[in-house]
Amino acid sequence: MSEENTIKDGANLSRREFLGTVTAGVAAAGVAAACVPFVSSMNPSSDVLAKATTEIDLSGIAPGEEKTFPWQGKPVFVVHRTPEEIAAMAASKGGKDPEPDAKRVQKPEWLVVIGICTHLGCVPNKTESGWLCPCHGSVYDNSGRIISGPAPRNLDLPPYHFVAENKILIGKA
Amino acid sequence: MNKIIAWVDQRFPLTFFIKHELTDYPTPRNLSYWWGFGFLAGFVLVIQIVTGIFLAMHYKPDSNLAFDSVQHIMREVNYGWLIRYLHSTGASAFFAVIYTHMARTLYYGSYRRPRELLWWTGQGLLLLMMATAFMGYLLPWGQMSYWGATVITNLFKATPVYGDQIVTWLRGGFAVDDPTLTRFFSLHYLFPFLIFAAVAIHLVALHTVRSSNPSGINLADKDNIPFHPYFTIKDLFGLGIFMIVYLLIVFFKPDLFIDAANNIPANPMQTPADIVPEWYFLPFYAILRSVPDLAGGVVAMAISVLIFAAMPYLDRSRVTGGARYRPIYRAMFYIFVIDIFVLGYVGAHPPAGTLKMVGEVCTAIYFLTFLLLPFVSRWEEKFVLARGLPPAVEAMARKEIAEAEGNV
Amino acid sequence: MSNNKLFGLIFCLMFSAGSAQADEAQLKRGAHVAVEVCNTCHSLKYLKYSDFLKLGFSKAEVDAMRGTKGMADPLISQMAPADELAMFSTVPPDLSLMAKARDGGANYIYAMITGFYTDAKGQTANHVFPGIKMPDVFMIAQADAAGRQGIEQKARDVSAFLEWASDPQAEERKTLGRYVIGYFVFLTVLLYFLKKKIWKRLD
Ligand code: HEM
Ligand code: FES
Questions:
Q1: Could you tell me which chain C residue has the CA closest to the CA of A50?
Q2: What's the domain range around B262?
Q3: Which of A94, B57, B160, B174 has an alpha carbon within 20 to 30 A of C175's alpha carbon?
Q4: Mutate which of A22, A38, A47 to test chain B, going by most B C-beta atoms within 10 A?
């Protein structure tokens, strides 16, 4: 085989490899792009997103009473706190995740928290002094702050705002 | 990387498998694009399974919810419209590809010895596909879904003695209803995986007997080339063309294969004006209607699908290469293809007047093609041998004839 | 095989595909007709009031259209089905998919609502749908030439709107489709040249 031929073959080979690499790259990008709609289809659909906010009428909740409302499929605890409870909570800083009560409420008589234990997601039960989680014994106070047990954080606060004196809209700050 | 492969190879024949089935697998170099349709069919099967699994995440197999859940997919699920249109168009694409694949086999005589088993697994695949598509069509629970399922399940009435019981058993009720929908969904989910397994068997059979080729003769070693990279790239190019056509329909004409009446929720109290099956069932449906008697029609339709399995025995010619060297067989092939298209047209329209007669004539031609083949093929064999053939083809034919006569 | 011809055909298909851009002003007029006229008797249950935002209506305009109904509420008929059954002896069908559910789509709807006339016996009848139980809502049978024109415009608007309502993703679909087809044409051209290159080795 002459030298010239070898060189030509070499050039051909690298051109083919270049074309092959580009084609493979374009195809791989296509496969990746094709995954997008499928992955996206598993995200909440538009009707689920539309239910992202829930309006709650507070007028039926007596002082000292707690009620649970579903929001985005999760329980939200709404507590109408008594003046004694408000005073006790304002005086305390909570447990391992200290936070002033004032930062956790918009109006002191209304505590609104997501009713999901920050440990592994069980729904705590109401007690006199707050909540007790049935799963692994986490104890929360009447500001939803973690007092004892394995839970790492205070109960989360949902975004909400008062749309009227006695009405809140959960889902939007 | 090499170490990992070596580790696996000691425990599982990975490299052997890749070499044997892909990089070293000898493939006739003269295969045309008609040989690419098998690969396409496999690809469409994957599209159907993937889109189907994602549809099933949002679909509700309950007669009160099914129709709404499809609209939920179309309007609210992210890209739900895309996934549904890929699936509904994919069903048609699947049949288009498979029918072409079968036509290739018939034209080139690829069903002949030694490929009988390959051909029969293909026949089984066709039946499974038909069942899958038929059950899938009920799921959107539109008027066509409902009445299509009603008519087709009623065909089993033709069973002697137990007809009515079988129909009731199939439906889980006295009419197509919620139990029917739920079981069709269950089976529609299952069958594609049976198809997948059957494809594996189909491929094992293929790699045992190897691909046929347009010349009809066994090629010398120098004419065989490794499947990879030559046919991987050829098939992928074919796939690119296929995807362009398929996606043009999905994005720009997605309702092409969805009957208008299927956008009306199923109503068991009212049958739509003209009910027609999906296009891929039309020729068989026309045969069903061309026989005036229920049982006769059902039997004729069943035979029209199943008779392909007999091809290796009906075609008694020993001249290889299919239609290529056989002018009469070639003519019969083209007449048969035209006949099927005409039957399809007849199946799509109400059976009245001339059209009814056309349907009957075409049904007769359909069956006559198969019935005459054993005689015509033998006569044709003598004719073409006398007229002269390329030496290699003639040698093969004479050898096969001699072997057959030696056995007698 | 003549690949060039094939590509030519595909390109033609591609650019003829999905022309007819929806006219937003017309769709908005049609939406008003649908809400104010059709929706008194027919539901459009697969549409929500919030879907009107996609048509370019402002939030205030949609608020006016929905009255006391919620933004995420479907467009349910303003008459109860039982009352409708008593009045028309049938429940008017849902309209959200009507343009897909009839052969002819929007054209069928247009022809039907403008197809009312007064027959020889002085009864209102319909050219497209004999025996229709729906009343001549625009009273086109009695209209003079000028009145007819206005009604025909309304009918065109509402038919266009119903076509949109039956397939609200059409625009998104066609836009995405152009990219996807463009991508596959590009990839297929690459595959074509790669195939030629690879098969050259055999020469
Ligand atoms: C052999 C492969 C398949 C074929 C030929 C096929 C065929 C069909 C057909 C003709 C329809 C009705 C389309 C319509 O008008 O909307 C359908 C619907 C459906 N199929 Fe399949 N299918 C296949 C595989 C699958 C698989 C593997 C799954 C699930 C894992 C699946 C799940 C569904 C669902 C949920 C529907 C109802 C949604 C709809 O109507 O769009 N399919 N199928
Ligand atoms: S989940 Fe509440 S304590 Fe573990």
A1: C72
A2: 33-210+226-275
A3: B57
A4: A38
CATH number at B154 reads 1.20.810.10
Beta-strand relationship, A160-164 and A146-148 = unpaired
In terms of C-beta density within 10 A (0-12 exposed, 13-18 middle, 19 or more buried), how is residue C170 classed?
middle
Beta carbon of B149 within 6 Å of any ligand 1 atom: no
Residue B2's pLDDT is what? Answer: 86
In a shared domain, residues B185 and B125: yes
Average pLDDT over residues A121-143: 94
C-alpha–C-alpha distance, residues C184 and C177, integer Å: 10
- Cβ-Cβ contacts under 8 Å, A12 against chain C: 197, 200
User: Are residue B337 and residue B403 in the same domain, yes or no?
Assistant: yes
Residue closest by Cα to atom 3 of ligand 2 = A136
How far the first Cα of chain A sits from its last, in Å, is 79
What integer pLDDT is reported at residue C9 of this predicted model?
47
Ligand nearest to the CA of residue A115, numbered in listed order? 2
Q: Is the pLDDT of residue A8 over 70?
A: no
Q: B275: burial class by Cβ within 10 Å (0-12, 13-18, 19+)? A: middle
Number of domains in chain C: 1
Degrees, nearest 5: CA angle C59-C61-C62: 65
Of C174, C181, C188, the CB nearest to B237: C188
**Catalytic residue check, B92:** no
Q: What percent of chain B has pLDDT over 90?
A: 77
Q: pLDDT tens digit string along B67-81?
A: 999 999 999 999 999
Is C188 part of a structural domain of the chain? no
Residues B122 and B255 in one domain: yes
Contacts of A42 in chain B (CB under 8 A): 54, 57
Please name which of A29, A31, A39 lies closest in space to residue B54, comparing C-alpha atoms: A39
The residues of A annotated as belonging to the active site are 136
**B114 upstream amide cis, omega within 30 of 0:** yes
Q: Is the pTM of this model over 0.90?
A: no
Instruction: Calculate the average pLDDT of chain B.
Output: 93
* B88 a catalytic residue: no
Residue range(s) defining the domain that contains residue C123: 2-16+25-168
Pick the CATH number of A49-170 from 2.102.10.10, 1.10.275.10, 3.40.50.80, 3.40.30.10: 2.102.10.10
For residue B12, tell me if it sits in a domain: no
Min distance C191 CA to chain A CA atoms (Å): 7
Neighbouring subunits of A (3+ Cβ pairs under 8 A): B, C
